[in-house]
Design a protein that fits this description.
Layout (H helix, E strand, L loop, with lengths): L1 E3 L11 E5 L2 E6 L6 E3 L20 E5 L2 E5 L2 H7 L2 H6 L3 E3 L5 E7 L4 E3 L2 E4 L4 E6 L7 H14 L4 H4 L4 H12 L4
Antiparallel strand pairs: 1-2, 2-3, 3-4, 5-6, 5-7, 7-8, 8-11, 9-10
Helix pairs in contact: 3-5
Amino acid sequence: MYPILSPHIPPRCSCAVFLIRKAQVLVCQGSHQKGIVCGRRNQLTNHSWIGSEMKPPIIVTEPGDVEVFKSVRDAELYLEAPEVKEGRLKAYDSEGRLLSVEQESAPDLKLFGVTLIVDPGVVKIGREESATTHEGELRHVLVEYLIRTGVDQNSLEGATLENVLAEVITRQGFTK
């Protein structure tokens, strides 16, 4: 196998493309799960659309609450697997792309039918879509959140998603 250069690798991922029997194969060795993908959606690597990336900050919402993270990694470390399992969380990148939030866990360790170790799992955030089809939905959630925290509704009329997100960050900062 010889590594070759490819424009399809996201710039922040430590992946390599190899030429194997005259076919390009992407071998993912990034901070997310390791795996092999051949240019199409693959749940093992979270490279749903090779060549595109999530644009930070990452916004995670649940009814009545909004959390803003500087990076995908910060969000994955902060969120807890039981929260994800409940299915109430929605995640977006800063441009309004919907992101997938999933719980990954190993099977519980059992000995003679008795559970010894329960793995609560880890949270993984990946790309759900390539277009910004949820920009309006995210803006609406952020505006509603700001109104609940005391911001005048008239001051938010006509504000872009970027401006509304900046106001949320100014008021509450990034979640760590």
